[in-house]
Amino acid sequence: MATTEDITLHRGLSGVYFDRTETTFIDGKEGKLLYRGYNIHDLAGVSNFEETSYLLMYGELPTGAQLADFDARLKANRNIPSEVMGIIHAVKDDHPMSVLRTAVSAMSAFDPESEDNSSEATLRKGIRLTSQVPTIVMAHHNIRQGKEPVPPSETLSHAANFLYMMDGEEPTPETAALMDTDFVLHADHGSNASAFTARAVAGTNADLHDAVTAGIGALSGPSHGGAAENVMTMALEIGEAENAEQYVKDLLAGGGRVMGFGHRVYRAEDPRARHLREGVRKLSEEKGEPKWYGILESVQNAMAPYGRRGIHVNVDFFAGVIYYLNGIPHDLFVPIFAVGRIPGWTVQVIEQFEHNILIRPLLQYAGPEERSYKPITDR
Ligand code: CMC
Fold this sequence. Notes:
Layout: E1 24-27, E2 32-35, E3 38-39, H1 40-43, H2 49-58, H3 64-76, H4 82-90, H5 96-107, H6 119-143, H7 158-167, H8 173-186, H9 193-202, H10 208-219, H11 227-238, H12 244-253, H13 273-286, H14 291-303, H15 316-325, H16 333-354
Bound molecules: carboxymethyl coenzyme *A.
C-alpha cells in the first residue's frame, strides 16, 4: 500500500526548519553561536550564568539593578520541598538523570503556578526550576551515599553553590569560574533533541514541568548529553597519551564513534569547545595531572583527518575531564548539562506557547498491504 504521492523523507528532521526563534542563532558552517545576538565568544568567561540566563529569558542584558534582583530570586528559590527529598530517597539507586527526571516531574505538584501556561508564569517557573535543579542533583548525590544533603548556600553564585552542595566545601574562585563558563556554554542551543522534545510537549499545551521532564529524558542519551561521560570513559581507557592514536584507529575500524566529536549542525569546530579546552589545560596542570590534557590533545590529533568530513570536536569533548578533575562522579556529567540547560528549555517553551502549533509530522507507511483479519482460531 505504497503512498502514491512523491514523498521526500527528512529522517531525523535533518536540515528541516520547523519554526522561528529569537533566542539562539547557530551558523554550523562558520561555527558561530549567538545568544540573543551576542557572540558566545563575548559571553563565555566574561558574562556569568546568572547574567546569561537573564539575557536568554528576558531578551536583553540586565542593568546592575535588574541583575541583582534576578540573582536574589535565583538564590531565594534554591530549596526543594521535603516531599521531593522523600521521592529522591525512594529512587536513589536509579541513574542521576532518571532521578532528576522523576524529581522535576514531582516538583510540579508543589509549584504554585504549575498549570498556568502564560509567558509570565512560565518564566517564573523556569527561574524556580533553574534554582531547584542543582539542589536536586546534589541532594541525590549525597543521599545515595547515605549522607545528608548539603543545604544550598544563600550567598554563593549559581556555579559555586552547585559545587558547594556536593560536599559542603566552597570551591576556589577559579574552579567556580570554570563551572560557571560550562553552564554559560550549555545554556541554550537551538533546536537540539531535548529542546525540540520540550517544544513538542509544549505544542500540546502541556506545561513547563511536563516539557522539562521530557527534555531531561531526551538529554540523557549518549548521542546528546551523555557524550561528556563517555569521553571520560574513553580517556580513562586510553590511559596515556601515546595510546590515543591506536585507540582511535581501532575504535573507528570497528565502526565505533569517537565521543565528543561530530555534530548535527556544526561542520566547523563547535565554538563552545575552545572555552573549555584552555580550562582543561590549566586545570590538569593545577591538579598535577597534565596527562588528561595530553590524552585529549592526542585524540584530537588522531581525529584531524576527519575534519575534512566536517567532524570536529564538540563542547562535550572537554567538559568531562573538567568534571572528573573536580572530583565529580561520571554519572553526574549529564545532570550538569541539564543544570545549565534549564534557561534554554524555558525560553523555548515560552516561544512555543507564544505562537503555539501542534507539532505533528508525518510518517511514510512502509508496512504490509491491507489484509483481512483472521479470528484467533484460524491462525
Ligand atoms: N566519530 C566517528 N565518526 C563520526 C562521528 C564520531 N563522533 N560522528 C559522526 N561520524 C560519522 C558517521 O559515522 C557518519 O559516517 P558515514 O556517513 O560514513 O556513515 C557521518 O559521520 C555522519 O554521521 P551521522 O550520525 O549521520 O550524523 P548525525 O548528525 O546524525 O550525528 C552526532 C551527530 C552528534 C549524533 C554524532 O556526531 C555522534 O554520534 N557523535 C558522538 C557523540 C557526541 O559527541 N555527542 C555530543 C554532541 S554535542 C552536545 C549536544 O549539543 O548535544
